Amino acid sequence: MSYVPMEPGSERGTRARVARLILEHGPVAAAALGERLGLTPAAVRRHLDALLADGMIEPRAVRPRGQRGRGRPAKLFAITDAGRSAFEHAYDDLAGSALRFLADRMGHEAVTDFARSQVSGLLRRLEPVMRTVPADQRVQVLAQALSAEGYAASASKAKSGGDQLCQHHCPVAHAAAEFPQLCEAETEAFAQLLGTPVQRLATIAHGDGVCTTHVSPQSLGHSAHRDKSKETGR
What we know:
By secondary structure, the chain is of the alpha+beta class. It has helices at about 10-25, 30-35, 40-55, 80-85, 90-105, 110-130, 140-150, 175-180, 180-195, 220-230, and strands at about 30, 55-60, 75-80, 155, 165, 200, 210-215.
């Protein structure tokens, strides 16, 4: 079943927009969906009920911060694995089969080389752009580029310092679960594009709801100098 809209103004098209908002911003409350899409509470409930019945989304109860047991938990809605599959994941199985064939015939080093070749296109396209972008805007530019390629990415400031890059959609999640080289190559590319150390905190491939990458506020050059200073005892 697909929720890719053919007619944006149709019932099916509106339901697809609801599903995509949950994919990109979930878990999210029904009221927030209504505000974003300009829908009445009854209309939102109708679409949510249909998506729940189809197994595309699931409810989650979250207690408001500071309540400590008081009050009724808020109901939020999150995308399910089946919901992710509805967003054009058909070639994920083919990617996994191709990588298994490559690993069997040529070894896992060939899979690593293939993974790096896949992200090389992103590097070629974005490296010239990143050289003209201020350092504090690069994560946002990268998120926009990833969203344009279907990864539903977003960027925000991390509470611990630096930035947080989130990818709410991964078209090769099942293949990446079997072949972590895909995620590793992508992480290397992020560090190269941003010019700063990055750390992958969570991945959809490992069962997390979102691929989350922490971007250090320090440049790669500063980090390398700090590590060298530790080694020399300076």
